[in-house]
Hints:
single chain, Quinone Oxidoreductase, Chain A, domain 1, Rossmann fold, 11 helices
Amino acid sequence: MSTPTMRAYVLTGPRQGSVQEVPAPVAAPGEVVVDVERVGVCGTDVEFFTGEMAYLHQGHAAYPMRLGHEWAGTVTAIGPGVDPAWVGRHVTGDTMLGDQVCRRCRKGQQHVCEDRQELGIRGGRPGALAEQLAVPAWSLHALPESVGAVLGALVEPGGNALRAAQAADLEPGERVLVTGPGTIGLLVAMFARAAGAEVHLLGRSDRSLAFARGLGFEHTWTEDELPALPFDAVVEASNAVHLPARALDLVEPAGRVVYIGLAGSPSTIDTRTLALKDVTAVGILSASPGLPDTIAAYASGAVDPRPLVAATVGLDQVGSVLAGARPQGAGPGPKVHIDPRLV
Ligand SMILES: [Zn+2]
Protein backbone atom coordinates (compact mmCIF):
# COMPACT_ATOMS: atom_id res chain seq x y z
CA MET A 1 0.00 0.00 0.00
CA SER A 2 1.40 3.39 -0.90
CA THR A 3 1.73 6.10 1.70
CA PRO A 4 -0.97 8.79 1.45
CA THR A 5 0.36 12.15 0.33
CA MET A 6 -0.83 15.74 0.45
CA ARG A 7 0.11 19.08 -1.05
CA ALA A 8 2.31 21.36 1.02
CA TYR A 9 4.36 24.48 0.37
CA VAL A 10 8.01 23.59 1.00
CA LEU A 11 10.64 26.31 1.37
CA THR A 12 13.97 24.80 0.33
CA GLY A 13 16.20 27.86 0.57
CA PRO A 14 16.16 31.65 0.42
CA ARG A 15 13.59 32.63 -2.23
CA GLN A 16 13.27 28.97 -3.27
CA GLY A 17 10.07 27.13 -2.61
CA SER A 18 7.34 25.12 -4.29
CA VAL A 19 4.19 23.12 -3.67
CA GLN A 20 5.18 19.48 -3.31
CA GLU A 21 3.48 16.16 -2.69
CA VAL A 22 4.68 15.12 0.76
CA PRO A 23 3.65 12.28 3.09
CA ALA A 24 0.36 13.11 4.81
CA PRO A 25 0.75 13.49 8.58
CA VAL A 26 -0.22 10.60 10.85
CA ALA A 27 -1.59 11.37 14.32
CA ALA A 28 1.12 10.45 16.84
CA PRO A 29 0.28 9.70 20.48
CA GLY A 30 -1.25 12.81 22.03
CA GLU A 31 -1.59 14.54 18.66
CA VAL A 32 -4.33 15.21 16.14
CA VAL A 33 -4.43 15.72 12.39
CA VAL A 34 -6.32 18.75 11.13
CA ASP A 35 -7.68 19.40 7.65
CA VAL A 36 -6.50 22.97 7.10
CA GLU A 37 -9.09 25.47 5.88
CA ARG A 38 -7.36 28.83 6.15
CA VAL A 39 -3.78 30.03 6.79
CA GLY A 40 -2.50 33.57 7.21
CA VAL A 41 0.82 34.62 5.70
CA CYS A 42 2.77 36.90 8.04
CA GLY A 43 5.97 38.89 8.23
CA THR A 44 7.81 36.03 9.93
CA ASP A 45 7.06 33.80 6.95
CA VAL A 46 8.44 36.49 4.65
CA GLU A 47 11.65 36.64 6.72
CA PHE A 48 12.10 32.90 6.31
CA PHE A 49 11.50 33.31 2.58
CA THR A 50 14.15 36.01 2.28
CA GLY A 51 16.54 34.18 4.63
CA GLU A 52 16.69 37.06 7.13
CA MET A 53 14.87 35.36 10.02
CA ALA A 54 17.15 35.26 13.07
CA TYR A 55 16.26 31.63 13.92
CA LEU A 56 17.98 30.53 10.67
CA HIS A 57 21.21 32.00 11.95
CA GLN A 58 20.81 30.79 15.55
CA GLY A 59 20.27 27.11 14.73
CA HIS A 60 16.57 27.12 15.71
CA ALA A 61 15.41 26.63 12.10
CA ALA A 62 16.84 25.24 8.86
CA TYR A 63 15.71 24.62 5.30
CA PRO A 64 13.78 22.74 4.03
CA MET A 65 10.91 24.27 6.01
CA ARG A 66 7.14 24.05 6.02
CA LEU A 67 5.73 27.45 7.02
CA GLY A 68 2.34 28.54 8.38
CA HIS A 69 1.31 29.29 11.96
CA GLU A 70 -1.92 31.34 11.68
CA TRP A 71 -4.48 28.69 10.87
CA ALA A 72 -7.94 27.21 11.30
CA GLY A 73 -9.28 23.81 10.33
CA THR A 74 -11.19 20.73 11.38
CA VAL A 75 -9.83 17.78 13.36
CA THR A 76 -10.09 14.65 11.20
CA ALA A 77 -7.91 12.11 13.03
CA ILE A 78 -6.62 11.57 16.55
CA GLY A 79 -3.64 9.66 17.89
CA PRO A 80 -3.55 7.33 20.89
CA GLY A 81 -4.56 8.99 24.15
CA VAL A 82 -6.54 11.86 22.59
CA ASP A 83 -10.15 12.58 23.59
CA PRO A 84 -12.34 11.39 20.67
CA ALA A 85 -14.56 14.45 21.22
CA TRP A 86 -11.98 16.45 19.23
CA VAL A 87 -12.91 14.68 15.99
CA GLY A 88 -14.95 17.01 13.80
CA ARG A 89 -14.25 20.06 15.96
CA HIS A 90 -13.39 23.34 14.28
CA VAL A 91 -10.13 24.51 15.84
CA THR A 92 -7.09 26.70 15.83
CA GLY A 93 -3.97 26.08 17.89
CA ASP A 94 -1.09 27.58 19.79
CA THR A 95 2.01 28.29 17.70
CA MET A 96 4.21 27.82 20.76
CA LEU A 97 4.78 24.19 21.66
CA GLY A 98 6.76 24.01 24.89
CA ASP A 99 8.20 20.75 26.19
CA GLN A 100 5.57 20.79 28.98
CA VAL A 101 8.09 19.61 31.60
CA CYS A 102 10.53 22.45 32.32
CA ARG A 103 10.18 25.11 35.00
CA ARG A 104 8.74 27.72 32.63
CA CYS A 105 6.20 25.31 31.17
CA ARG A 106 5.08 24.24 34.65
CA LYS A 107 4.61 27.94 35.50
CA GLY A 108 2.21 28.28 32.56
CA GLN A 109 4.77 30.08 30.42
CA GLN A 110 5.33 27.44 27.78
CA HIS A 111 5.55 30.16 25.11
CA VAL A 112 9.03 30.99 26.37
CA CYS A 113 10.16 27.38 26.93
CA GLU A 114 13.85 27.10 26.03
CA ASP A 115 13.23 23.82 24.19
CA ARG A 116 9.98 24.84 22.53
CA GLN A 117 9.00 24.15 18.98
CA GLU A 118 7.08 26.84 17.13
CA LEU A 119 4.69 25.58 14.51
CA GLY A 120 6.07 26.36 11.06
CA ILE A 121 8.84 28.45 12.62
CA ARG A 122 11.20 26.69 15.00
CA GLY A 123 12.45 23.23 15.83
CA GLY A 124 11.46 21.55 12.57
CA ARG A 125 7.73 21.37 13.35
CA PRO A 126 5.91 21.42 9.95
CA GLY A 127 3.49 24.33 9.59
CA ALA A 128 0.00 24.82 8.26
CA LEU A 129 0.65 25.80 4.63
CA ALA A 130 -0.52 22.35 3.57
CA GLU A 131 -3.69 20.36 3.17
CA GLN A 132 -3.17 18.77 6.58
CA LEU A 133 -1.39 19.56 9.81
CA ALA A 134 -0.42 17.52 12.89
CA VAL A 135 -0.39 19.26 16.28
CA PRO A 136 -0.49 18.20 19.96
CA ALA A 137 -4.05 17.97 21.22
CA TRP A 138 -3.16 20.13 24.23
CA SER A 139 -2.31 23.03 21.91
CA LEU A 140 -5.80 23.11 20.35
CA HIS A 141 -8.43 25.78 20.96
CA ALA A 142 -11.97 24.92 19.90
CA LEU A 143 -13.69 27.62 17.85
CA PRO A 144 -17.34 28.44 18.47
CA GLU A 145 -19.71 28.44 15.50
CA SER A 146 -19.58 32.25 15.22
CA VAL A 147 -15.81 32.09 14.62
CA GLY A 148 -15.42 30.67 11.12
CA ALA A 149 -12.23 29.80 9.27
CA VAL A 150 -11.32 33.40 8.36
CA LEU A 151 -11.62 34.61 11.95
CA GLY A 152 -10.06 31.38 13.18
CA ALA A 153 -6.89 32.03 11.17
CA LEU A 154 -6.80 35.56 12.65
CA VAL A 155 -6.79 34.29 16.26
CA GLU A 156 -3.01 33.92 16.38
CA PRO A 157 -2.12 37.49 15.28
CA GLY A 158 -5.09 38.67 17.33
CA GLY A 159 -3.72 37.01 20.46
CA ASN A 160 -0.45 38.89 20.06
CA ALA A 161 -2.34 42.15 19.64
CA LEU A 162 -4.74 41.52 22.50
CA ARG A 163 -1.82 40.91 24.86
CA ALA A 164 -0.20 44.17 23.68
CA ALA A 165 -3.45 46.08 24.20
CA GLN A 166 -3.88 44.52 27.65
CA ALA A 167 -0.29 45.47 28.56
CA ALA A 168 -1.11 49.08 27.64
CA ASP A 169 -3.57 48.88 30.56
CA LEU A 170 -6.03 51.37 29.07
CA GLU A 171 -8.90 52.93 30.95
CA PRO A 172 -11.90 54.09 28.90
CA GLY A 173 -11.13 57.52 27.46
CA GLU A 174 -7.37 57.16 27.75
CA ARG A 175 -5.30 58.00 24.68
CA VAL A 176 -3.05 55.38 23.06
CA LEU A 177 -0.68 55.73 20.14
CA VAL A 178 -0.03 52.63 18.03
CA THR A 179 3.06 52.89 15.84
CA GLY A 180 3.07 50.71 12.73
CA PRO A 181 -0.34 50.15 11.08
CA GLY A 182 0.37 46.63 9.80
CA THR A 183 -1.71 43.60 10.77
CA ILE A 184 -0.56 43.58 14.39
CA GLY A 185 -0.79 47.35 14.81
CA LEU A 186 -4.29 47.47 13.37
CA LEU A 187 -5.38 44.56 15.57
CA VAL A 188 -3.93 46.35 18.61
CA ALA A 189 -5.89 49.43 17.57
CA MET A 190 -9.08 47.37 17.33
CA PHE A 191 -8.63 45.82 20.78
CA ALA A 192 -7.75 49.22 22.28
CA ARG A 193 -10.83 50.77 20.71
CA ALA A 194 -12.95 47.93 22.10
CA ALA A 195 -11.50 48.79 25.53
CA GLY A 196 -12.81 52.35 25.13
CA ALA A 197 -9.52 54.09 24.40
CA GLU A 198 -8.98 57.00 22.03
CA VAL A 199 -6.76 55.37 19.42
CA HIS A 200 -4.12 57.15 17.35
CA LEU A 201 -2.08 55.45 14.64
CA LEU A 202 1.36 56.45 13.38
CA GLY A 203 2.38 55.17 9.96
CA ARG A 204 4.77 55.73 7.12
CA SER A 205 2.61 55.50 4.04
CA ASP A 206 -0.57 57.26 3.08
CA ARG A 207 -1.90 53.93 1.79
CA SER A 208 -1.70 52.15 5.15
CA LEU A 209 -3.08 55.18 7.01
CA ALA A 210 -5.94 55.53 4.53
CA PHE A 211 -6.81 51.90 5.13
CA ALA A 212 -6.81 52.54 8.90
CA ARG A 213 -9.16 55.49 8.42
CA GLY A 214 -11.44 53.18 6.43
CA LEU A 215 -11.63 51.00 9.54
CA GLY A 216 -12.92 54.02 11.44
CA PHE A 217 -9.67 55.22 13.01
CA GLU A 218 -9.81 58.97 12.49
CA HIS A 219 -6.56 59.88 14.27
CA THR A 220 -3.89 58.76 11.78
CA TRP A 221 -0.57 60.49 11.45
CA THR A 222 2.80 60.38 9.75
CA GLU A 223 5.80 61.20 11.93
CA ASP A 224 5.93 64.75 10.58
CA GLU A 225 2.26 65.39 11.34
CA LEU A 226 2.03 63.82 14.79
CA PRO A 227 0.51 66.39 17.18
CA ALA A 228 1.99 66.98 20.63
CA LEU A 229 -0.73 65.22 22.59
CA PRO A 230 -0.35 63.41 25.91
CA PHE A 231 -0.35 59.67 25.19
CA ASP A 232 -1.20 57.52 28.18
CA ALA A 233 0.31 54.55 26.40
CA VAL A 234 2.29 53.83 23.25
CA VAL A 235 2.28 50.42 21.58
CA GLU A 236 5.27 50.05 19.27
CA ALA A 237 4.21 47.59 16.54
CA SER A 238 6.46 48.66 13.67
CA ASN A 239 9.72 47.26 12.31
CA ALA A 240 11.44 50.66 12.35
CA VAL A 241 14.74 50.77 14.26
CA HIS A 242 14.17 54.28 15.61
CA LEU A 243 10.57 53.99 16.83
CA PRO A 244 11.17 52.08 20.11
CA ALA A 245 13.12 55.07 21.43
CA ARG A 246 10.59 57.51 19.98
CA ALA A 247 7.79 55.60 21.72
CA LEU A 248 9.49 56.20 25.06
CA ASP A 249 9.89 59.90 24.24
CA LEU A 250 6.23 60.23 23.23
CA VAL A 251 4.57 58.51 26.19
CA GLU A 252 3.31 60.52 29.14
CA PRO A 253 5.25 60.24 32.42
CA ALA A 254 3.91 57.31 34.47
CA GLY A 255 2.53 55.83 31.23
CA ARG A 256 3.07 52.48 29.56
CA VAL A 257 5.14 51.52 26.53
CA VAL A 258 4.54 48.14 24.93
CA TYR A 259 7.09 46.64 22.56
CA ILE A 260 5.76 44.07 20.11
CA GLY A 261 7.43 45.17 16.85
CA LEU A 262 10.83 43.80 15.82
CA ALA A 263 13.35 45.63 13.68
CA GLY A 264 15.94 43.90 11.52
CA SER A 265 18.76 45.26 13.67
CA PRO A 266 18.99 46.20 17.37
CA SER A 267 16.88 49.11 18.60
CA THR A 268 18.11 50.91 21.68
CA ILE A 269 16.28 52.92 24.31
CA ASP A 270 17.71 55.21 27.01
CA THR A 271 16.81 53.61 30.34
CA ARG A 272 17.41 56.98 32.04
CA THR A 273 14.35 58.23 30.21
CA LEU A 274 12.42 55.16 31.34
CA ALA A 275 13.37 55.77 34.98
CA LEU A 276 13.03 59.55 34.99
CA LYS A 277 9.58 59.36 33.38
CA ASP A 278 8.48 56.53 35.68
CA VAL A 279 7.35 54.57 32.63
CA THR A 280 6.35 50.91 32.59
CA ALA A 281 7.78 49.07 29.56
CA VAL A 282 6.52 45.64 28.51
CA GLY A 283 7.73 43.22 25.83
CA ILE A 284 5.32 40.82 24.16
CA LEU A 285 6.21 37.55 22.45
CA SER A 286 3.46 35.33 21.13
CA ALA A 287 -0.27 35.00 21.39
CA SER A 288 -0.31 32.01 23.72
CA PRO A 289 -1.81 33.43 26.94
CA GLY A 290 -4.15 35.63 24.88
CA LEU A 291 -5.77 33.00 22.67
CA PRO A 292 -8.93 32.30 24.73
CA ASP A 293 -9.76 35.99 25.19
CA THR A 294 -9.18 36.63 21.48
CA ILE A 295 -11.57 33.87 20.48
CA ALA A 296 -14.13 35.32 22.91
CA ALA A 297 -13.73 38.84 21.47
CA TYR A 298 -14.23 37.55 17.92
CA ALA A 299 -17.17 35.37 18.96
CA SER A 300 -18.99 38.27 20.62
CA GLY A 301 -18.24 40.65 17.74
CA ALA A 302 -16.40 43.07 20.06
CA VAL A 303 -13.57 42.90 17.53
CA ASP A 304 -14.01 41.92 13.87
CA PRO A 305 -10.70 41.83 11.99
CA ARG A 306 -12.00 40.28 8.77
CA PRO A 307 -11.55 43.54 6.78
CA LEU A 308 -7.78 43.08 7.23
CA VAL A 309 -7.81 40.16 4.78
CA ALA A 310 -7.02 41.50 1.31
CA ALA A 311 -7.29 38.24 -0.62
CA THR A 312 -7.60 34.48 -0.25
CA VAL A 313 -5.64 32.32 -2.68
CA GLY A 314 -4.45 28.72 -3.05
CA LEU A 315 -1.15 27.09 -2.13
CA ASP A 316 0.18 27.64 -5.65
CA GLN A 317 0.36 31.38 -4.96
CA VAL A 318 2.23 31.15 -1.64
CA GLY A 319 5.61 31.73 -3.31
CA SER A 320 4.54 34.90 -5.07
CA VAL A 321 2.81 36.22 -1.93
CA LEU A 322 5.98 35.59 0.09
CA ALA A 323 7.95 37.41 -2.60
CA GLY A 324 5.75 40.46 -2.02
CA ALA A 325 3.29 40.23 -4.91
CA ARG A 326 -0.30 41.29 -4.30
CA PRO A 327 -2.78 38.69 -5.56
CA GLN A 328 -4.97 39.80 -8.45
CA GLY A 329 -8.01 41.65 -7.19
CA ALA A 330 -6.59 42.02 -3.69
CA GLY A 331 -8.26 44.54 -1.40
CA PRO A 332 -6.36 47.17 0.57
CA GLY A 333 -5.86 45.12 3.77
CA PRO A 334 -2.43 43.97 4.97
CA LYS A 335 -3.19 40.23 5.32
CA VAL A 336 -3.27 37.51 2.66
CA HIS A 337 -4.97 34.23 3.47
CA ILE A 338 -4.33 30.84 1.88
CA ASP A 339 -7.06 28.24 1.46
CA PRO A 340 -5.26 24.93 0.74
CA ARG A 341 -8.47 23.54 -0.74
CA LEU A 342 -8.34 26.07 -3.61
CA VAL A 343 -6.59 24.79 -6.70
ZN1 LIG B 1 9.33 23.93 28.69
